[in-house]
Amino acid sequence: MSMDRLIENIVKTQNPSVVGLDPKLEYVPEFIKEKKFKKYDRTLKAAAKAILEFNKCIIDEIHDICPAIKPQAAYYEMYGYEGVKTLYKTIQYAKEKGMFVMTDGKRNDIGATMEAYAAAHLGLTDVGGEKIEAFGADALTVNGYLGSDGINPLLEQCKLYDKGIFVLVKTSNKSSGELQDLKIGDKTVYATMGDMCEKWGTEVMGKYGYSGVGAVVGATYPEQLAEMRAALPHTFFLVPGYGAQGGGAEGVSKGFDKNGLGAIVNSSRGVMCAYKKEECDEHDFAKAARREVIRMKEDIISYLPRIAFPE
């Protein structure tokens, strides 16, 4: 299954982190922006072209040391159809470099609409009998709070095309507890959603013990992260909130299993804007991103056993 490929990339790189390519134009170095503005004026096309060059340079520097990227769709959609084109090209470029790609779209709907989302991001689109890959990510983040009606169409695509999903369970934002910490009987809403992930995952189990249904569990809540790791032995975690949102390596380590697997930790601004934090020459932005990926990796694995396949 899809998570098997992710796990294999993690073991190969000995790095359980994913780079969130969520680029605002302000993150892009001036020399790239000015080059695109000169060619395309100050247009959405220029912005999208600048972001694509920025993304490709970072991918070139990190693909050998980082297993995955996670582009957030909103940061591309804000630049219109040109931005969506850049999202597609970013996904394809990262896959060509051997990286696992999880699109952060947090899609949430039912029936035919969710079937359309599933086909767009994970499956194939029928064009007059021809089956065409629209975006081609390996996994998609989804909101499961509409229940199984919103998940089943995705599971079909996962089975057909060897893809995965990450369902929102305990998110990293401050107000998440307003709903997710409420109780249904004696169990929290987030724990109930976690149990549903385990159930959904039985249809798409992988060879390393994890299913194609992952869960988003935030680094900002380490106690809940530990709780969910114990409760969801077959559910792989996507862990946002490290770094800029306050989550630390010791806390995120609670999401991993005895083999140093079971979770992948996201950093977005920390990597994309590393050159600004370092105050280095902006032409060195991609090298700075690489240095930050290495720093993050070493920080996280210092709290983990050596990453290895299950025996």
UniProtKB/TrEMBL annotation:
The keyword RNA-binding does not apply. InterPro entries: Aldolase_TIM, OMPdecase_AS, OMPdecase_type-2, OMPdeCOase_dom, RibuloseP-bd_barrel. Its EC number is 4.1.1.23. Residues 16-289 form the Orotidine 5'-phosphate decarboxylase domain. Keywords: Decarboxylase, Lyase, Pyrimidine biosynthesis. The keyword Lyase applies. One of its GO terms (molecular function) is orotidine-5'-phosphate decarboxylase activity. It comes from the Bacteria. This is Orotidine 5'-phosphate decarboxylase. The lineage of its organism: Bacteria, Bacillati, Bacillota, Clostridia, Eubacteriales. The gene is pyrF.
